Amino acid sequence: MGVESWFVLAALLAPVGCVIQDVVADAMPVEAVPLVDEKGAAFDDRTIRLMHTTMQTLGRMAIGRWGDRRIRRQYRHVQRRRRT
Q1: Would you place residue 63 in the very low, low, confident or very high pLDDT band (cuts 50, 70, 90)?
Q2: Are 74 and 7 in contact (CB under 8 A)?
Q3: Can you give the residue range of the structural domain that contains 54?
């Protein structure tokens, strides 16, 4: 399979990977955010909601930056191959 075909395949599969990652990212804060502090006292609802929001925001920022960089790098690679 040629480089152009791989690029098209990757461009089509990338959104699928992002959707799967988004589903995992939405489910992950439920498991990652603690319900009690280090002394064993339960966090209030507002604090838990804030921790969930922070976790999802950081996860989405990481996904966005990684995907954006990878796509641009692949596109530059294909453009260089076309010129040679």
Answers
A1: low
A2: yes
A3: 3-83
